[in-house]
Amino acid sequence: MKRRTSGPRPGRLLMFLPALLPALLLAGCGISPTAPTTAGAPASGALQPGTRTHDARLLFVGPTGLRYAARTFTSPIGPQEAIDLLLKGPSQAEHKRGLTTLVPAMKGRVIAEAGQKGVVDLRLPTTVERLDHAAVSQLVCTAAKALDQDQTKVLVRVHESQLDGTWGVRCDSVGNAYPAAAKHR
Predict the structure, then answer these.
(1) pTM score
(2) Span 58-75, pLDDT tens digits
(3) How many domains in the chain?
(4) DSSP string, 99-110
(5) How far apart are CA 138 and CA 156, in angstroms?
(6) Which of 108, 126, 133, 135 lies deepest, with the highest CB count within 10 Å?
(7) Residue 29 lies in a domain
(8) 120-168: pLDDT as tens digits
(9) Helix (H, G, I), strand (E, B) or coil at 144
């Protein structure tokens, strides 16, 4: 077998590779030099680092049943603010996810007041019998969730328009309202 003595040797090319590699990469990247350009207005809607946030959980109706939607705020949201947000209906993004509300427009204001620890008084301008069960769940469980992230611990006392007395309601873990006197799993 005869040994080659002329021509390029692979070892010599590898020796120059570290010096040639950056030049080869830059030559073929397709990026041409440009001056800085404006990119538009600064980002908006983002919170400053370290800002404490609070989620409001609003109960809407989705394609597969009752679903909570979270909205983020920089201060805590109480039962009244949560009910007011619920009554405005789902946001565009929530609507695109298939969420809607069965709470009808009512003459008069729905009032939700945090009472003693673990209790919300919910005053309706109508009677419950005029509302769909899902609408009652939306109202009761949204108010309860605003008082305590574990809505199952909250008693909601419902006051109906033109009726004396109240009745207690609780929410299960997925947002279904049921009479507080009833045993529920």
Answers:
(1) 0.70
(2) 999 999 999 999 999 988
(3) 1
(4) -B--PPP-SS--
(5) 12
(6) 135
(7) no
(8) 999 999 999 899 999 999 999 999 999 988 999 999 999 998 777 788 9
(9) helix
Q: How far apart are CA 100 and CA 13, in angstroms?
A: 68
How far is residue 156's CA from residue 139's CA, in Å, rounded to a whole number? 10
Task: Specify if 128 maps to a domain.
Answer: yes
Q: Which of 71, 108, 110 minimizes the C-alpha distance to 87?
A: 110
**Which residue type, as a one-letter code, is found at position 78?**
G
Rounded to the nearest 5°, which phi and psi values hold at 30?
A: 80, 10
Residue 144: which of 110, 160, 116, 121 has the closest Cα?
121
Reference 82, options 62, 47, 55; nearest CA is: 55
Q: Do residues 40 and 48 lie in contact, with contact meaning Cβ atoms separated by under 8 Å?
A: no
Neighbours of 145 (CB within 10 A): 25
1 inside domain: no
**Residue 164 CA: distances (Å) to CA of 158, 161, 167, 182:** 11, 8, 10, 21
Phi, psi of 110 (to 5 degrees): -85, 125
Backbone angles phi, psi at 121, to 5 degrees: -95, 120
Q: Are strands 65-73 and 166-171 parallel, antiparallel or unpaired?
A: unpaired
Q: Is residue 25 part of a domain?
A: no
Residue range of the domain that includes 59: 54-179
CB 94 within 8 Å of CB 73: no
Alpha carbon distance 99, 76 (integer Å): 23
